[in-house]
Amino acid sequence: MSGGQPTDHAVRRAGSVLAGARCLVLGGGGFLGLNLCNRLAEAGAEVTCFSRSHPQAEVLDRRVTRVTGQFGDRLAIATAVERQDVVFHLIAGSIPESSNRDPSAELGATPIATLHLLEICRSARIKKLVFSSSGGAIYGVPHAIPISEQSPTDPISAYGISKLMIEKALYLYRHLHGIDYQILRIANPYGRFQLGTKHQGLIGNYIFRVLSDLPLEVWGTGEVVRDFLHIDDVSDAFLAAVAYDGPHKVMNVGSGLGLSINEIIAELKEAFGRDHLPCVHKSARAADVPANVLDTALIRSEFGWQPRVALREGLISTIAWMRAHLAETRTERH
């Protein structure tokens, strides 16, 4: 997972396409969105960050325009989309576990609002829509590891079904109206701006808990295997997606390496320089598949993309960011 020529070339190619391009990031106030907005601004794009709130607005590049609104507000979305070149759809309904508590709410919200978005994009003649899908939830229990883009999609959460519905809607609108799109099925991202205060984002949550002197929550035996990827590598993939004009509309974005939760805890011990991290074990969750590791051969060959940030390096930098963020937050409270 070290640096290499392919990704550098892909990002340079994307930079030439993005310079001066008008880009709208829906869900721009979240973890993925904040990082993407900043990267797009660095690449010379004119960036608009659309979010229902801007809790970390201070970390946004000053060149980014902030717009507050609800995804379900068609007028607000139409106004934001107007005169844009590229739309990044990063909005998700909830998280896999909680989505199963009320599947009808999950399936009736973001997918329907996305259909309205596609109508708006069609009218506005958007050049491309890039959608952030799920490399974990969308496949369900895998038949084989690593999981390729051709693997069956049998989600075991309403969250995964919601993502799949949106993917199919994108396909439909390309078929009917010629809207260009790219779907990125992203593994488990971590890094700066991931607050770690919710159950989504295991590494961010674990780092937050260690720095807050709280025990790590381990669901089940800790042998569940996941594919973890640094946010800088995810941002590289987003940028490369804009420049890509090939035939493959669905790409896995992951490290291609599987690590169990217990192995992540061991890596965190090393990164923190500690011999022990207290853990509390809880019952396994129904929405957790036993293993999820993505096959990334397609994106490597088509985009010229590959992950560049090694896990240890990524953990150390994320710990440093979280430590500074928590110190600043505590200072503001006093």
Tell me what you see in this structure.
- This protein is of the alpha/beta class and 334 residues long.
- It has one domain: Rossmann fold (3-Layer(aba) Sandwich), CATH 3.40.50.720.
- It has eleven helices and 13 strands.
- A seven-stranded parallel β-sheet has the order 3-2-1-4-5-6-11, with helices on both faces.
- The longest helix is centred in the C-terminal third of the chain and has 23 residues, at 311-333.
- It is globular and about 55 Å long.
- 46% of the residues are buried.
- The mean pLDDT is 92.
Mean pLDDT: 92
Main sheet properties: 7 strands, parallel
Q: What is the ordering of alpha helices and beta strands? A: HEHEEHEHHEHEEHEEEHEEHEHH
| End-to-end gap | 41 Å
Report the CATH architecture. Answer: 3-Layer(aba) Sandwich
Helix and strand layout, with pairings?
Layout (H helix, E strand, L loop, with lengths): L4 H14 L3 E5 L4 H12 L3 E6 L13 E4 L5 H8 L4 E4 L6 H4 L3 H22 L3 E7 L23 H20 L3 E6 L1 E3 L11 H10 L4 E4 L5 E2 L1 E3 H13 L6 E4 L5 E2 H12 L6 E4 L14 H7 L7 H23 L1
Parallel strand pairs: 1-2, 1-4, 2-3, 4-5, 5-6, 6-11, 7-10, 8-13
Antiparallel strand pairs: 9-12
Helix pairs in contact: 1-8, 2-8, 3-5, 5-6, 7-11, 9-11
